[in-house]
Specification:
The chain has 125 residues and is mostly helical. The protein contains six helices and no strands. Helix 4 packs antiparallel against helix 5 and helix 5 runs antiparallel to helix 6.
């Protein structure tokens, strides 16, 4: 658990210790895993946006669930929390707060993307 998780109830933007546990020091695997996450996340966020526009609660639940799993597994806890909220909205069929919820998820993804792209640049140097 990192300092941010202990000191507040706010989820961490990214927990690099979790990524390190998954990759067990294999930098090539880490780059591949992060590349897939950075490439696939915008696709799932776009699916969520389309589901909200179409008032398709089931599709919103599925898209949010898929990305939530990847985010939480890798260590993107704040993004995972935002996606859990979207997934719950979809499951409950209440899409009234979904647009602001998606904006939050997209903002969290941008925070994660910035951190991970910088991490990848540093590790490639």
């Amino acid at each position: 658990m990192n300092r941010d998780e202990r000191s507040t109830d706010t989820p961490a933007v990214f927990v690099f210790e979790r990524l390190n546990e998954i990759c067990t020091g294999d930098s090539e695997f880490e780059r591949e895993l992060l590349g897939e996450f950075l490439h696939g996340s915008p696709v799932l966020l776009a699916r969520a946006r389309a589901a909200i526009a179409a008032a398709d609660a089931s599709e919103l639940e599925q898209a949010a669930h898929s990305l939530k799993g990847s985010a939480r597994t890798l260590g993107a806890d704040a993004l995972g929390a935002a996606l859990f909220a979207l997934e719950t909205m979809g499951r409950n069929g209440d899409l009234s707060p979904a647009s602001p919820g998606l904006e939050r998820a997209e903002a969290e993804f941008e925070r994660v993307r910035t951190l991970l792209e910088e991490h990848l640049r540093k590790s490639a140097a």
